Amino acid sequence: MRPRSPHEQGRTASTLELVFDLVFAVAVSNASSNLHHAIAEGHLADGLAHYGIVFFGIWWA
Fold first, then answer.
1. Run of H or E including 25
2. What angle do CA 29, 17, 61 make, to 5 degrees?
3. Cα separation, 43 vs 36, whole angstroms
4. Could you tell me if 50 and 35 are in contact, meaning their C-beta atoms sit under 8 angstroms apart?
5. Helix (H), strand (E) counts: the chain
6. In what helix (H) or strand (E) does residue 34 lie, and over which residues does it extend?
């Protein structure tokens, strides 16, 4: 499967691209919410470590 040219006239995002962006945004939001709860409970180091690992996995995808 070859990628579409970004210079293609009338190029719009496909449904799959939009779903991927939405899933990415929700995953980052969920990870940051968990970080917030960890900080609120006083577990800064554990929360940052967990957030870093989870965010790296999301970003790698």
1. helix 15-40
2. 55
3. 10
4. yes
5. 2, 0
6. helix 15-40
pTM of the model: 0.73
In the chain, the amino acid numbered 10 is G
pLDDT of the chain, 61 residues: tens digit per residue: 677 777 777 778 889 989 999 999 999 999 999 999 999 999 999 999 999 999 999 989 8
The separation between CA 50 and the C-alpha centre of its own chain, rounded to angstroms, equals: 15
CB–CB of 36/30 below 8 Å?
no
Phi and psi, residue 47, nearest 5°: -65, -45
Q: How many residues appear in the chain?
A: 61
What residue type is assigned to position 11 of the chain?
R
